[in-house]
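Forgive a beginner's question, but might I ask you for the amino acids of a protein and the tokens describing how it folds?
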Amino acid sequence: MVKVTDTILRDAHQSLLATRMRTEDMLPIAPLLDEIGYWSVEMWGGATFDSCLRFLKEDPWERISKLRKAMPHTHMQMLLRGQNIVGYRHYSDDIVEKFVERAHARGIDVFRIFDALNDVRNMETGMRAAKRVGATVEASISYTISPVHTIEGFVKMGKKLEEMGTNTICIKDMAGLISPQAAYDLVRGLKEETSLPVHVHSHMTSGMALTAYLKAIEAGADIVDTAISSLSMGTSQPPTESLVAMLKGTEYDTGLDLKKLAEISDFFNKVRKKYHDFESEHTAIDTDVLIFQIPGGMMSNLATQLKEAKQDHKIHEVLEEVPRVRADLGYVPLVTPTSQIVGTQATLNVITGQRYKSCTNETKNLVRGMYGKTPAPISAEIRRKIIGDEKPITVRPADLLQPEFERMAKECKQYARSDEDVLSYALFPQVAQDYFREREMMEKGANGRDLAAIAALFVSLAEKRSKAKKAASTEQVDLWMLASRRESMNGGGWIL
């Protein structure tokens, strides 16, 4: 029997709807999701934490608790970016440990942990913390293609992850690059060299994922990631119902009920329409990913950056520059945060007309070794262009960080009400502060006070975004958010 993880509450809407799905649109269907018999439901981590605070003005921690109550029988899974947690830099060990502890206490059962560079040193603290609280650890191999990445190398990494104590191994194919034969070979290698269950995660970006899943299953894969059909395909995962139907009656039969899955699909088909403004032309199947290896989310970011710079006519030049920058920076896998680093640097190289004339701090830190060890060495020539004569570090980056939690608690004591608030602030200081202020004002407003002040606050924030030249979609979500909130206010409330 093959087991299934459904990504409908996390990666599916992150891939297709810019991570904008609100908790209120998850809860009505959660009891039915709980009946299906999934191995797990991925519902947190990745970009959801940032999106909750920044755009939806929701407490991401409360999302866990609400879904836990609604799905008491299903393993809830999150994506943890190793030492980056759910942010974009490395955080100190005490922040990682506290984050894992609080997430598990709220209801997370499975921690899928990866590192953008496949540097296992950046995964060990999160893995150790998850094991300490009794959660399932699913350490991940970030799959990519390059002259320095091989099946044998990935299998060797899998053996190392087993030695580090993971409960399962995930092949994380974030760009949909894995071919059916590579999927077969990698799963077979891991099954032969380790004694652990193998979980395969891919995207339909190249159109190969469903076939790759079938070959992976033939090779012994134990679990695969899918998404309910109404939020599948394109840069999302293969459809759950299709996989269930294809395996029905075979030795791999999932045992899942297609009628119940159809009911869930119908629900999310209606929900998807609510988020139409966040659909993108860059989330369909696109075989160019096999040439440029650019994940769908990264593609939409590049298009937005170029449009804001009035350079959108140079999109093809940027697409061609991305693989070159990736090679220069040690053939890093393109996954958060390295996809953003490589994509932004490629855009700068094209716009300025001179490669590495202007470099982001993130590019410099990557070359300095502050994100870990790159898969291939960075040449001395490229290093000099980016950081001059600085000498890169070779230690685990987090070894250079002092404990942060107590300092962060002092910094945000005016607003923080819990350790979880402190963690939100540690990960996204300015965004969290804005959220805390708005939360306080919303609570006052719910008691019939300070409605004018609340309205003024949101007008002020909208002006800030305009001055900062934020994308129009960001402003649209705030207006939609304000309209939806009026219903949650006691007695209806206010309209802008």
